[in-house]
Amino acid sequence: MLFSHDTELTLRAACVLINSNRVDGERLGDMPSLNTYLDGFGWTGRRDRDDAELESVHRLRARLGKIWAVADDEERAVEQVNALLSDTKASPWLTRHPEMPEWHLHLASVHDPLWQRMGAEMAMALADLIRIGELRRLKTCAAADCEAVLVDLSRNRSGKFCDTGNCGNRQHVAAYRERRAQGG
């Protein structure tokens, strides 16, 4: 494993969050869908469960999308990650939970607003990528009709397609059909 378990999980959570309005419309448009997302990734701590909280998560989603958009420009990505770390007042501390017994970092108090906790942890996971020179693992799906993002966790950085819209399979089938049509 290239990254710690919590870094990988947080990077995946960031991708799902960003993609929640890029494929098949808005999928985090209400509190039940936000709660499903949060529970699916094991987010703990304070939840206000109101429109303001949902809007703050939407703003975080947009901010994270901008980081993916500039991932090919290390200086700009670092600037945005540092700004997110600062804005969330990241303050690391070690913890563990029954559902995740390995020691891992939390970067905000369980009493801080949800967007702040999520943003701090996602910014730190992105900082981990930057520190080890792996920012190029942040990608946009290579399918022409898809705007989803992905974090390529493959050993050789060969991942090109997201897992939200079956893009890889669709591209492979199209290429196969093209080869067959050309007699190959």
Topology:
Elements: H1 5-19, H2 31-40, H3 51-69, H4 74-87, E1 93-97, E2 100-106, H5 114-131, E3 138-140, E4 149-151, H6 167-181
Antiparallel strand pairs: 1-2, 3-4
Helix pairs in contact: 1-5, 3-4, 3-5, 4-5
Domain Zinc finger CGNR: 137-180
Organism: Mycolicibacterium flavescens
Protein name: RNA-binding protein
Quick structural gist:
With 184 residues, this protein is mainly alpha-helical. It has six helices and four strands.
Decide which structural class fits the backbone.
Answer: mainly alpha
Q: What is the string of SSEs from the N terminus onward?
A: HHHHEEHEEH
The CATH architecture is: Orthogonal Bundle
The low-confidence runs, each spanning 5 or more residues with pLDDT under 50, are none
* CATH-defined fold name: Jann2411-like fold
Instruction: Kindly give the count of domains.
Output: 1
Give average pLDDT, whole number: 91
Distance between the termini: 38 Å
Task: Tell me the name of the CATH homologous superfamily.
Answer: Jann2411-like domain
Q: Which of globular, elongated, flat, extended, rod-shaped describes the shape?
A: globular
CATH class: Mainly Alpha
Domain Zinc finger CGNR: 137-180
Organism: Mycolicibacterium flavescens
Pfam families: ABATE (PF07336), zf-CGNR (PF11706)
InterPro entries: ABATE (IPR010852), ABATE_dom_sf (IPR023286), Znf_CGNR (IPR021005)
